[in-house]
Structure formats: C-alpha cells, structure tokens
Amino acid sequence: MRGFAMVFIMLLALPLKGQEPALVCDSEAHSAFDFWVGTWYVLDREGEHVGVNEIRKVEGGCMISETYKSVTTPFTGRSLNFLNPDTGKWEQIWVDNQGNYLHLYGGLQNGVMVMQGDHGNGENRRSDKISWALLDDGRVRQLWERQKDSGEWTTIFEGFYVRIPGDKS
Known about the structure:
The protein has one helix and ten strands.
C-alpha cells in the first residue's frame, strides 16, 4: 500500500514539472551581449575614472538593464537592452536625467556589439552609433559616435569598462 501511495504522489507531481515556464530567452542570440553584464568602473580614453555602471540581466534573461552614474557630475542614465523577437536585432533605449534619449538597433558584427539609430529633427537630425567590444584583458571598450549631415562620424565618448573587484557577474 505504501508503494502504491508513493507512485501515486510521483504521478501527481509529473504534470507540475511540465507547467514550469519554458526558458524563452536562453538562446545563443540572447547571450550575445552577456560580456557587458557586471559592475564596472568607467574610465575615459585618458584613463580617468568618470563613472560606475551596473549591467544586469533581468526578466528571466530577456533584457539587460544598465544603470550609469557619473562620479564627476550629477549625470545619471539608464538603458534597457533586448533582442527584438520580431526583427532578430538587439535594441537599446537610453534615457538620462538631462532629458536625452537614444533608441538604437543592431547586433554583433565580428564579435563587437554595434547599435545605431537616427534621432532629432531638422538641424538637430543625427545618427548615433555605439559599439561595445570585449577586449583580451577583460575590459569592455565603448565607442559612441555621431554623424550629422556632413556624413563624417565624430567620437562623442570613448570609454573603457573595468570590472569592479569582487564582482561575481
């Protein structure tokens, strides 16, 4: 009788296992930007510490959340990054405490995450492009470029992310 009760309980538990939600964001494409996940010191191209950036996978791995804080000014900003299932492209939506926004689209190009988007109207029309590259020493290089009507790309920011010691990401 005891064996029958045990088998009965195990059979009841089987449907519960099947009700667990599927991992819909665990593909290789969803992991393309994982190299950016972590807590980082942000250094400018001269090596000066300019900020701290916390990058986390959230929503079951379906989104990457960025929280940036300058260490030299009151500037802060956040971004949400996700793989759009309709287009197969990565998207970033950035908003900061100065009212600026970016909406970028892209993906991996030769191992570098590159996203680009057009913003503004009239004379303020521009194209922004940001690339993130994992370097051999574990740092991440971020390059933000802007293109105006002339067609020439200008560097807005070049920075290097250095993982904060003890970060377990």
